[in-house]
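Dear colleague,

Thank you for sharing your sequence with our group. We've completed the structure prediction you requested, and as agreed, I am returning the results in plain text so they can be pasted directly into your records. Please verify that the sequence below matches your submission; if there's any discrepancy, let me know and we will rerun it promptly.
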Amino acid sequence: MRRRFILITLAAGLLTITAATGCRLQLDASSKPSPSGAVVSPATPPTVEITGLIKAPPVVRAPIRDATIDARIRSIVSESAAAVTELRKREKDLQARIQRHDVTHQMKQTSESLDPSQRVEARTKFGMGFKLRQDGWKAAAIQAFREGLNLDPADVKAHFQLAEMLPPAEAYRHYDYVVKLSPDSGEALRAKSWIADNSQYRSATDFPTWAKNPDIAKLSSLPLTFRDCAECPDLVVVPPGAFAMGDLQGGGEAYEQLVHRVIIEKPFAAGSYAITVGEFAHFVAATGHKDAGDCLVKSKNGNWFRQADGNWRNTGFSQSKRHPVVCVSWQDAKAYVQWLNSRVSGAPYRLLREAEWEYAARAGTVTKYWWGDEIGKNRANCDDCGSPLGGQQTMPVGSYSANEFGLWDVHGNVWEWVEDCWSDSYVSSSMVNKLHKVESCKRYVLRGGSWNLGAKYLRAAYRLGDRPLNWDSDYGFRVARSL
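Please find the predicted structure tokens below.
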């Protein structure tokens, strides 16, 4: 099959992109791109489709932090403190409304208000249901459990027994009640396992529509982008606010539940882009950081395998300094953050917390992707996104428009490691942006989807977990900085 070659000229210099039928995207040696890409107003889409490829935005680095930027950061922090005080009041009122709306809360209230005779009648119905089920009278057992739950709707064991006898589409609701009514019970653990294997039966969340809307603090000093040093990544300041976290549309995975409100109480800075090859190279040159090799890469025939010499330099496809670094583990990401903190006083750098990542990715939206519920065509780099290299390899950072907060490529291109240890659900999630930290954590969370997977995995709510020393050619990371 013939190869096609396309020449793209930029005002800042010559950028040659070679597009073969395989998976090659390479910068000409004479090109001198910035390690971290461009900062362009999200209101001005920077991408131009050229014969099936994307022209990278012009290279404009964020300004290095100086006295003027420091003054703006202090203003943002001060303004945020007053805004968050009012935000907490609004969220407290909203939580009260959510609780009144919550079906399981109403079930508990009904159960607590039962008089002794009603409680005895409910227990009798449940006892009949257990006995009829043991004797093989399934239809009669189902009827007995339903009659008992009409009296006492908060009985966890009854919901579980009933769910085991119902078709999956009906059973899902009762297993869901079990998890919500008693999240730490033995029945809940078994219900979670069933839900994880049968997520296709989940209907739209019962989280109220009016409670999904975000509440973003409006700060006069925003937007603000900056970097701390010449080799430091570009950052954009994210305002405090509150949002609904989790699968808002329904049809997602069990571990995207429960939908819950989270308050981001302080402004923070997030990487405008995922960390690039050029930025990671500065870190390796300065520290001598060693990688373990053996990166999981994708062959030309589509099979994944551990490549003995596979690492962030050798990913199975060509990359420039402006591509997101891949074949990095959670431990590599933490080492990079530690190096940044050695260069910037106050040790402000870290990985994003999981709640911060979803808040920043949504940027005030409640849809699957920040631009809407449909993936569309050529809006992100993934296997079925209509992107020129989807399913083949990464694209340079900034190849697609930034969201309203000014973060680029939050959907697709590379998975992004975050700080949190993996949890199977949000059942115990706090309303406040707390880090889920576990001693000797076995798996950490990744967000955002990648070039290798389909649109389902790019949703703002989707979560992935992997071991801290695992590295694949679609694993990268984005940094955060406290203010």
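Summary note from our side: The domain at 111-201 is CATH 1.25.40.10 (Serine Threonine Protein Phosphatase 5, Tetratricopeptide repeat).

Kind regards,
the structure core
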